[in-house]
Write a structure and sequence with these properties.
The strands form three sheets. The chain has a four-stranded parallel beta sheet with strand order 7-6-5-8, with helices on one face. Strands 1-2 form a two-stranded antiparallel sheet. Strands 3-4 form a two-stranded antiparallel sheet. Helices cover 43% and strands 15% of the residues. The protein has 203 residues and is α/β, with parallel strands linked by helices. The protein binds S-adenosylmethionine. Keywords: Methyltransferase, S-adenosyl-L-methionine, Transferase.
């Protein structure tokens, strides 16, 4: 058994040593997720203990983070727009700046009651099309990706977040996918040159 405040200190020190900038913030995030508690709870639970198995989980999360694995992959989730999306390393982690795509559609089509057909090319976690169809409640949409594993993640998010009949995901290549029947097409294409991938920070 270990006190939360002690775990916070261990995590912060270990992550700082590995050059993680927001070491305290990230340690808190790990603990909050393990204990399934909020920020407020964390402040008021400074005398609460992590069980042995919770502390083991915490240590395994720290080890992964120390090897630069993104925290979203460790926790299998990332907030995007109004929801928390399941992610794993088969998909890009939804990025806050991609929310501009949702904002742009909302600005261009302010009437959310319209019945539209959306296509999301390179859907990844499905974050764009799921968020859009939650805004446009009478519309339908298709998300496509050429990665089987990404489609599995998108389906999982559909089941967790919306599970609606208006949305389907398809394994397809966007260079040959017919888009003529759609009213709105969104796409956040791969933007990293394959040759640059090895030079990027893992997170
Ligand atoms: C930058 S990610 C965007 C993921 C998601 N839409 C988002 O905004 O977080 C690009 C996605 O395009 C997919 N992709 C790449 N080439 C593709 C192709 N030719 N056809 C379909 N999907 C493709 C990748 O598998 C990846 O999931």
């Amino acid at each position: 058994m270990i006190a939360v405040r002690e775990a916070l200190s261990i995590g912060r020190k270990q992550l700082t040593k590995k050059g993680v900038n927001n070491s305290l913030f990230e340690t808190k995030l790990l603990i909050k997720n393990i204990l399934k508690i909020s920020d407020e709870d964390l402040i008021s639970t400074s005398e609460v203990f992590l069980s042995e198995s919770q502390f083991e989980t915490f240590q395994s999360f720290l080890e992964r983070r120390k090897k630069s694995e993104p925290i979203a992959y460790i926790l299998n989730k990332r907030e995007f727009w109004k929801d928390s999306f399941y992610v794993n390393n088969s998909t890009l982690i939804p990025r806050p700046d991609s929310e501009i795509i949702i904002e742009t559609v909302l600005n261009l089509i302010p009437n959310k009651d319209k019945k539209l057909k959306f296509a999301d090319l390179g859907t990844g976690s499905g974050c764009l099309i799921i968020s859009l169809l939650k805004e446009y409640k009478y519309s339908e949409g298709v998300g496509i990706d050429n990665s089987k594993e990404a489609i599995k993640v998108a389906e999982k998010n559909k089941n967790i977040l919306s599970n609606n009949e208006r949305l389907s995901f398809k394994l397809a290549d966007f260079s040959t996918f017919k888009t003529t029947e759609f009213d709105v097409i969104v796409c956040n294409p791969p933007y990293v040159n394959k040759n640059d991938i090895n030079n990027m920070q893992k997170n």
